[in-house]
Structures are given as structure tokens and as C-alpha cells.
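Try this one yourself first.
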């Protein structure tokens, strides 16, 4: 048997989605089918069909992609639990990248799956409206340090939206200011400057109206004390207190996602192994860049679920 170790469960956010996500889990695991069926019922329309069949143009809309990522992430988690007969090592922490925080809340039993997808669909609607009110977007990049990126943002009226790894960032702003920032980033030596598949300048003050309205929306949902600490995006600190968690959900819409610092703090707390549960491999790659010595497992398909079970029993 594998020696007991401290692990963290982590859940991806936007940019991890792809048409077809979750389909093979739906086919192979009854627990995954139950997740998608519950989500479809909660939302009153077949979100699962959008995940499995697209079209991509509809899937990437903020109001759809946020609950879709949560549904797929929880399907990955439940499939892994089913396949292992609940034998996965219990997490010391759970954490999510932006919208992935809601997946973490579900796994920590702080929020039901049905409430989580209803809440994030409303969150997506509010963010989309804020994005239409103040049009803009986001750029991701590699190759620079945080001080250089911060200087570019101050010069061009943009904001650091997330810090994913020592040289992996995203910035938010209006399209005009992002164009200025792009030119300056190129001059500074940034690599792989890419527009992100989002519908607004998220994780910035430009979408403050969504943040304020989400605070009111939260009052319509039931939260429970989590059974495991949830590492916050805004502070990178573990949270248990419900009021602090709610404030985190409000703040994360307009503040930088401190993913690198979150990973570093989980490692400082004794975590040596991470399980990314959800579509894609975004967090798996980021964690390896933050801490090359960390053990990271990706759970996104039936094949990767099988690999986890083999590791656990070996």
C-alpha cells in the first residue's frame, strides 16, 4: 500500500473547458451520470448535452461554462470515489482556481451540488452583464516576473487577474488598454501572449457591479461549515468560517487569483500530493511549475481515474 500522505484536491476554472468534457465518465460511471442528471434537473435544461456536444460558442458563454466546469469537476471527483470505493486519501485542503472554488465548496460539503450550479449560473449571468456594461477581456502570458507585469499594468490601465506560477500570468482590461499592454509586454519579452476565452475583464475592478450583486444573491443559498479548509483565491489562506468564505466568493470576482501562493501555502502546510479533478490539465501544469517536486495527479477521464486507482492500490 501507498504510505499515507497529505494531499490536496484542486479544481480548475475557466479556460479548462472543452466540448466533450465528462462524456466518457458519464458512460463508464453511474456516479458521474448522477452528477450530470442532478445538474440538468437543478438548472432546468440539459447542460450535460452542452458539455458533451457543444457547440463551443455556446459552451464558452460565461453563464454556461461556469456551471459546466463545476458539473464536470464533481463528476470527476465522484467517479474517482466510486472507482476507488471511497479509498482516495482524504484531503488536508481543497482549493479551486476562480470558479473552481465552488467545486471545492461542494466537495467540502459547504454547499450542495444543486445550489452550487444554480449559484454560479447566476454568478455567470451577473459577470456577463458586467462585461457587457464595461467591455473588455483577458490576456494570458508567460516569460516575465510579477514586478514587470505589475509595471505594465500600471502603465496601461490594466490589472493582474491571476498569478498562476512564477512566470505565468493573466491580465484584465478594456480591449483598448489590453492592446497597449500587449505591445508593451512584447517589448518586455513576454511569450505566448494569448487572448483568453472569456466574455469580460474578470478578476478586475471593471466588473465591480457583478461583485456587489453576487453578495445579495448569496443570501438565497444555504451554506454549511466545510469539513476541510478551503484555500482562498484572494488571500491564499485556508478558510473555515462561513462569513469569510462568503466574502471570498464576493471578492474573487474583482481581485487577483493568487494561485501560485495558494499552492505554496498548501505545500507549507505539509501537502506533497495534489489531485486535480476536472476538465483539462491547467492546474496540473501550473503546480509542476510552482513546485517541480510535487506529486500531481490529473483526474479528467475514465483513463486517468483508472491510473489513480492503480497508483492507490500499488
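Now uncover the answer:
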Amino acid at each position: 500500500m501507498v504510505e499515507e500522505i497529505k494531499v490536496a484536491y484542486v479544481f480548475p476554472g475557466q479556460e479548462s473547458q472543452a466540448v466533450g468534457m465528462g462524456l466518457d465518465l458519464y458512460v463508464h460511471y453511474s456516479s458521474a451520470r448522477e452528477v450530470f442528471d442532478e445538474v440538468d434537473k437543478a438548472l432546468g435544461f440539459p447542460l450535460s448535452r452542452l458539455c458533451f456536444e457543444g457547440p463551443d460558442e455556446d459552451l464558452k458563454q460565461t453563464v454556461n461554462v461556469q456551471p459546466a466546469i463545476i458539473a464536470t469537476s464533481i463528476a470527476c471527483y465522484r467517479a474517482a470515489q466510486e472507482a476507488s470505493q471511497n479509498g482516495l486519501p482524504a484531503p488536508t485542503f481543497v482549493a479551486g482556481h476562480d470558479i473552481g472554488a465552488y467545486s471545492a465548496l461542494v466537495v467540502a460539503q459547504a454547499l450542495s451540488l444543486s445550489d452550487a450550479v444554480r449559484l454560479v449560473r447566476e454568478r455567470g449571468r451577473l459577470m456577463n452583464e458586467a462585461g457587457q456594461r464595461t467591455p473588455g477581456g483577458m490576456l494570458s502570458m508567460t516569460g516575465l516576473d510579477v514586478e514587470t507585469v505589475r509595471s505594465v499594468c500600471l502603465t496601461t490601465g490594466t490589472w493582474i487577474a491571476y498569478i498562476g506560477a512564477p512566470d505565468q500570468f493573466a491580465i484584465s482590461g478594456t480591449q483598448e488598454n489590453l492592446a497597449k499592454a500587449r505591445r508593451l509586454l512584447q517589448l518586455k519579452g513576454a511569450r505566448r501572449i494569448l487572448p483568453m476565452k472569456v466574455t469580460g475583464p474578470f478578476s478586475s475592478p471593471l466588473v465591480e457591479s457583478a461583485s456587489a450583486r453576487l453578495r445579495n444573491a448569496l443570501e438565497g443559498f444555504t451554506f454549511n461549515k466545510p469539513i476541510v479548509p478551503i484555500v482562498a483565491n484572494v488571500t491564499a489562506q485556508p478558510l473555515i468560517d462561513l462569513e469569510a468564505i462568503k466574502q471570498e466568493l464576493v471578492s474573487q470576482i474583482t481581485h487577483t487569483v493568487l494561485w501560485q501562493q495558494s499552492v505554496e501555502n498548501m505545500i507549507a502546510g505539509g501537502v506533497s500530493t495534489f489531485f486535480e479533478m476536472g476538465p483539462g490539465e491547467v492546474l496540473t501544469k501550473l503546480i509542476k511549475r510552482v513546485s517541480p517536486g510535487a506529486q500531481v495527479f490529473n483526474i479528467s477521464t475514465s483513463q486517468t481515474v483508472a491510473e489513480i486507482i492503480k497508483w492507490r492500490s500499488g
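Discussion: The domain at 7-132+204-313 is CATH 3.40.366.10 (Malonyl-Coenzyme A Acyl Carrier Protein; domain 2). The chain is about 50% helix and 15% strand.
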